[in-house]
Amino acid sequence: MAYELHYWPTIQGRGEFVRLALEAAGAPYIDVARGDEDSGQGTPAMLRFLQDETLTHPPFAPPFLKDGHQVVGQTAAILHYLAPTLKLVARSDYARVWTHQIQLTIADMVTEAHDTHHPIAIGLYYEDQTAEALRRAKEFCGARMPKYMQWFESIVVRNPAGPRHLVGGKLSYADVSLFQLVEGLRYAFPKAAAKVLAKTPGVVNLHDRVAALPKVAAYLRSERRIPFNEQGIFRRYPELDIR
């Protein structure tokens, strides 16, 4: 049975971290909101599920995953749920908790990247908060991005199994998510990201290894990979790319 991933059909966003894990593992899935409305899919199907008042445990917002009767919301929780089946996490409880911790830290950085262009309110347009966005982006590019990436660099270098992965000696969903984080930063902040990543060669090497995985590389070349755009989390506003 194919997994059902529910996320907005025109952006990568937080759903892309789940898509990449499914693609890296070669797992069958349906990207529901990108499907044909005539066949019962599309965005209306996702919204109907979100608005279903009979659900005991409704997801708060996309992304959420349906696996038979099981429904899981929140990107990090979805990946934590999927990983053992997809073989994207080591078997030990210690490794699973550590991988989950890394993913939550990635989620924190994703939120901070998003808040550079929406520092006051999601309901306001970027143009309504440009002064605050500039202040937030200066802090993010100058302090927060280096701090996060140096931490990721340190755990790559300190991995007892070697610097090819974040956890142990095999690919995990944290590796795939760090790849996507680097991709997003390079799109939204090309100048600032280049400066920071020049000091984190272990992170860059990991990113490149994930990109070269046959299933990931095929996905990146396919139409299933939605291009970055100015409606998603990572948005390219040149004035916010502060070195």
Summary?
By secondary structure, the chain is of the alpha+beta class.
Q: Which structural category do the helix and sheet elements fall into?
A: alpha+beta
Q: Return the string of H and E elements.
A: EHEHEEHHHHHHH
Low-confidence runs of at least 5 consecutive residues: none
Global geometry: globular
Helicity, as a percent range: 40-55%
Mind telling me the CATH class of the largest domain?
Answer: Mainly Alpha
> Any idea what the CATH architecture of the largest domain is?
Up-down Bundle
| Overall tally of structural domains | 2
N-C termini distance: 47 Å
CATH-assigned fold name of the largest domain:
Glutathione S-transferase Yfyf (Class Pi), Chain A, domain 2
Q: What is the residue-mean pLDDT, rounded to a whole number?
A: 97
- Number of DSSP helical runs: 9
Total number of β-strand segments?
Answer: 4
Q: What share of the residues does DSSP label as strand, in percent?
A: 5-15%
Main beta-sheet strand count, sense and barrel state:
4 strands, mixed
Radius of gyration: 18 Å
Tell me the strand order in the biggest sheet: 2-1-3-4
Oligomer kind:
single chain
Tell me about this structure.
This protein has 243 residues and is of the alpha+beta class. It folds into 2 domains: 3-86, Glutaredoxin (3-Layer(aba) Sandwich), CATH 3.40.30; 93-225, Glutathione S-transferase Yfyf (Class Pi), Chain A, domain 2 (Up-down Bundle), CATH 1.20.1050.10. Helix content is 52%, strand content 6%. It has a 4-stranded mixed β-sheet, with helices on one face.
